Amino acid sequence: MSAALRNAPTAWGHVAKLLHWLGAALILVLLAHGWWMTHLAARAERLQHYQLHATIGFYLLLLLALRLAWRLGNAVPALPGELPEWRRTAARGAHWLLYFLMFFVSISGWMVADTFRQPLETTLVGFISVPHLLDASHRPYRELIEGTHAVSSYVLFALVAVHFAGALNHHFWQKNDVLRRMWWGA
Fold it and tell me: In this structure, are residues 112 and 146 in contact, taking their beta carbons and an 8 Å threshold?
Protein backbone atom coordinates (compact mmCIF):
# COMPACT_ATOMS: atom_id res chain seq x y z
CA MET A 1 0.00 0.00 0.00
CA SER A 2 1.29 3.42 -0.91
CA ALA A 3 2.91 5.43 1.86
CA ALA A 4 0.65 8.38 0.95
CA LEU A 5 -2.43 6.31 1.79
CA ARG A 6 -1.17 5.26 5.23
CA ASN A 7 -0.31 7.51 8.15
CA ALA A 8 3.29 8.60 8.58
CA PRO A 9 5.04 9.47 11.86
CA THR A 10 4.38 13.17 11.25
CA ALA A 11 1.32 13.24 8.96
CA TRP A 12 -2.05 11.66 8.39
CA GLY A 13 -2.42 9.52 5.28
CA HIS A 14 -5.01 10.13 2.56
CA VAL A 15 -7.38 7.46 3.87
CA ALA A 16 -7.41 8.94 7.39
CA LYS A 17 -7.95 12.43 5.95
CA LEU A 18 -10.80 11.25 3.72
CA LEU A 19 -12.52 9.45 6.60
CA HIS A 20 -12.01 12.48 8.89
CA TRP A 21 -13.43 15.07 6.50
CA LEU A 22 -16.32 12.90 5.28
CA GLY A 23 -17.23 12.21 8.89
CA ALA A 24 -16.96 15.90 9.78
CA ALA A 25 -19.23 16.84 6.88
CA LEU A 26 -21.83 14.19 7.80
CA ILE A 27 -21.78 15.24 11.46
CA LEU A 28 -22.35 18.89 10.57
CA VAL A 29 -25.15 17.97 8.15
CA LEU A 30 -26.78 15.74 10.78
CA LEU A 31 -26.50 18.37 13.52
CA ALA A 32 -27.99 21.08 11.33
CA HIS A 33 -30.68 18.82 9.87
CA GLY A 34 -31.58 17.39 13.27
CA TRP A 35 -32.06 20.83 14.75
CA TRP A 36 -33.99 22.03 11.71
CA MET A 37 -36.29 19.00 11.52
CA THR A 38 -37.18 19.16 15.22
CA HIS A 39 -37.66 22.94 15.37
CA LEU A 40 -38.69 24.23 11.94
CA ALA A 41 -39.88 21.42 9.64
CA ALA A 42 -43.59 21.22 8.92
CA ARG A 43 -45.17 18.57 11.13
CA ALA A 44 -46.71 16.75 8.14
CA GLU A 45 -43.27 16.25 6.57
CA ARG A 46 -41.40 15.45 9.78
CA LEU A 47 -41.46 11.65 9.42
CA GLN A 48 -39.79 11.91 6.00
CA HIS A 49 -37.08 14.06 7.56
CA TYR A 50 -36.58 11.57 10.38
CA GLN A 51 -36.16 8.83 7.78
CA LEU A 52 -33.56 10.85 5.85
CA HIS A 53 -31.81 11.79 9.09
CA ALA A 54 -31.69 8.14 10.19
CA THR A 55 -30.33 6.99 6.83
CA ILE A 56 -27.53 9.57 6.89
CA GLY A 57 -26.86 8.60 10.52
CA PHE A 58 -26.47 4.93 9.57
CA TYR A 59 -23.97 5.86 6.87
CA LEU A 60 -22.08 7.94 9.45
CA LEU A 61 -22.04 4.98 11.84
CA LEU A 62 -20.61 2.77 9.09
CA LEU A 63 -18.00 5.43 8.29
CA LEU A 64 -17.12 5.73 11.99
CA ALA A 65 -16.55 1.99 12.25
CA LEU A 66 -14.26 2.13 9.21
CA ARG A 67 -12.47 5.16 10.63
CA LEU A 68 -11.88 3.56 14.01
CA ALA A 69 -10.63 0.34 12.40
CA TRP A 70 -8.28 2.38 10.20
CA ARG A 71 -7.01 4.36 13.18
CA LEU A 72 -6.41 1.25 15.27
CA GLY A 73 -4.52 -0.36 12.38
CA ASN A 74 -2.31 2.64 11.58
CA ALA A 75 0.20 4.68 13.51
CA VAL A 76 -1.08 7.98 14.86
CA PRO A 77 1.22 10.90 13.96
CA ALA A 78 3.06 12.32 16.95
CA LEU A 79 2.01 15.64 18.36
CA PRO A 80 4.55 18.50 18.11
CA GLY A 81 7.45 18.04 20.51
CA GLU A 82 7.06 21.49 22.04
CA LEU A 83 3.62 20.69 23.49
CA PRO A 84 3.63 20.13 27.25
CA GLU A 85 2.62 16.63 28.40
CA TRP A 86 -0.70 17.84 29.85
CA ARG A 87 -1.72 19.16 26.42
CA ARG A 88 -0.75 15.89 24.74
CA THR A 89 -2.82 13.98 27.29
CA ALA A 90 -5.75 16.39 26.84
CA ALA A 91 -5.55 16.03 23.03
CA ARG A 92 -5.57 12.23 23.21
CA GLY A 93 -8.43 12.27 25.71
CA ALA A 94 -10.45 14.70 23.59
CA HIS A 95 -10.01 12.53 20.50
CA TRP A 96 -11.23 9.41 22.30
CA LEU A 97 -14.12 11.40 23.78
CA LEU A 98 -15.02 12.51 20.25
CA TYR A 99 -15.05 8.87 19.10
CA PHE A 100 -17.17 7.87 22.09
CA LEU A 101 -19.68 10.68 21.50
CA MET A 102 -19.88 10.05 17.75
CA PHE A 103 -20.76 6.40 18.41
CA PHE A 104 -23.06 7.24 21.35
CA VAL A 105 -25.02 9.83 19.37
CA SER A 106 -25.28 7.49 16.37
CA ILE A 107 -26.46 4.52 18.41
CA SER A 108 -28.92 6.60 20.43
CA GLY A 109 -30.27 7.91 17.11
CA TRP A 110 -30.66 4.32 15.93
CA MET A 111 -32.67 3.65 19.08
CA VAL A 112 -34.86 6.69 18.36
CA ALA A 113 -35.58 5.31 14.88
CA ASP A 114 -36.67 2.03 16.48
CA THR A 115 -39.12 3.64 18.92
CA PHE A 116 -41.50 5.29 16.44
CA ARG A 117 -45.03 3.85 16.42
CA GLN A 118 -43.90 2.20 13.21
CA PRO A 119 -40.09 1.77 13.49
CA LEU A 120 -38.16 3.33 10.63
CA GLU A 121 -36.99 0.82 8.05
CA THR A 122 -33.67 1.69 6.43
CA THR A 123 -31.77 0.03 3.63
CA LEU A 124 -28.17 0.94 2.91
CA VAL A 125 -26.65 0.86 -0.59
CA GLY A 126 -29.97 -0.38 -1.90
CA PHE A 127 -30.00 -3.86 -0.35
CA ILE A 128 -28.57 -4.01 3.20
CA SER A 129 -31.45 -3.82 5.70
CA VAL A 130 -30.51 -2.15 8.96
CA PRO A 131 -31.62 -4.38 11.85
CA HIS A 132 -33.52 -3.00 14.81
CA LEU A 133 -31.83 -2.60 18.18
CA LEU A 134 -35.14 -2.19 20.03
CA ASP A 135 -38.66 -3.53 19.62
CA ALA A 136 -42.14 -2.17 20.40
CA SER A 137 -41.72 -2.92 24.13
CA HIS A 138 -39.29 0.03 24.31
CA ARG A 139 -41.80 2.58 22.99
CA PRO A 140 -42.55 3.93 26.51
CA TYR A 141 -38.89 5.02 26.72
CA ARG A 142 -38.97 6.96 23.47
CA GLU A 143 -39.01 10.40 25.10
CA LEU A 144 -36.02 9.52 27.30
CA ILE A 145 -34.11 8.02 24.36
CA GLU A 146 -34.85 10.98 22.10
CA GLY A 147 -33.91 13.46 24.83
CA THR A 148 -30.64 11.61 25.43
CA HIS A 149 -29.93 11.70 21.70
CA ALA A 150 -30.63 15.45 21.53
CA VAL A 151 -28.54 16.37 24.58
CA SER A 152 -25.61 14.17 23.53
CA SER A 153 -25.81 15.76 20.05
CA TYR A 154 -25.39 19.20 21.60
CA VAL A 155 -22.46 17.94 23.68
CA LEU A 156 -20.92 16.49 20.51
CA PHE A 157 -21.44 19.83 18.75
CA ALA A 158 -19.67 21.63 21.61
CA LEU A 159 -16.75 19.19 21.52
CA VAL A 160 -16.48 19.51 17.73
CA ALA A 161 -16.35 23.31 18.18
CA VAL A 162 -13.57 22.94 20.76
CA HIS A 163 -11.74 20.53 18.41
CA PHE A 164 -12.02 23.06 15.56
CA ALA A 165 -10.89 25.93 17.81
CA GLY A 166 -7.93 23.83 18.93
CA ALA A 167 -6.92 23.17 15.33
CA LEU A 168 -7.12 26.91 14.57
CA ASN A 169 -5.10 27.64 17.71
CA HIS A 170 -2.36 25.28 16.55
CA HIS A 171 -2.31 26.87 13.10
CA PHE A 172 -2.58 30.59 13.84
CA TRP A 173 -1.15 31.08 17.33
CA GLN A 174 1.21 28.18 17.92
CA LYS A 175 2.17 28.08 14.24
CA ASN A 176 2.77 24.33 14.15
CA ASP A 177 1.64 21.78 11.56
CA VAL A 178 -1.22 20.07 13.46
CA LEU A 179 -3.91 21.49 11.15
CA ARG A 180 -1.84 21.32 7.96
CA ARG A 181 -1.10 17.62 8.31
CA MET A 182 -4.87 16.82 8.39
CA TRP A 183 -5.51 19.11 5.41
CA TRP A 184 -5.02 18.22 1.75
CA GLY A 185 -1.90 19.33 -0.02
CA ALA A 186 1.29 20.71 1.48
Answer: yes
Q: At residue 134, what is the residue type?
A: L
- Report the CATH number that the domain containing residue 156 is assigned in CATH: 1.20.950
Establish if 135 belongs to a structural domain: yes
The span from the CA of 152 to the CA of 55, in Å, is: 19
The residue segments making up the domain with residue 71 are 14-182
| pTM of the shown model | 0.91
The model's pLDDT over 149-172, given as tens digits with 9 standing for 90+, comes to: 999 999 999 999 999 999 999 999
Smallest CA-to-CA distance from 151 within 95, 112, 93, 122 is with 112
Number of structural domains found in the chain: 1
The closest of 88, 132, 95 to 113, measured between CA atoms, is 132
Q: Render pLDDT for 23-74 as a digit per residue (tens, 0 to 9).
A: 999 999 999 999 999 998 888 888 999 999 999 999 999 999 999 999 999 9
Cβ-proximal residues to 153 (8 Å cutoff; 6+ apart), any chain:
30, 31, 34, 105
Task: Please report whether residue 2 resides in a domain.
Answer: no
Beta bridge partners of 129: 123
Strand segments, DSSP code E, in the chain are: 123-124, 128-129
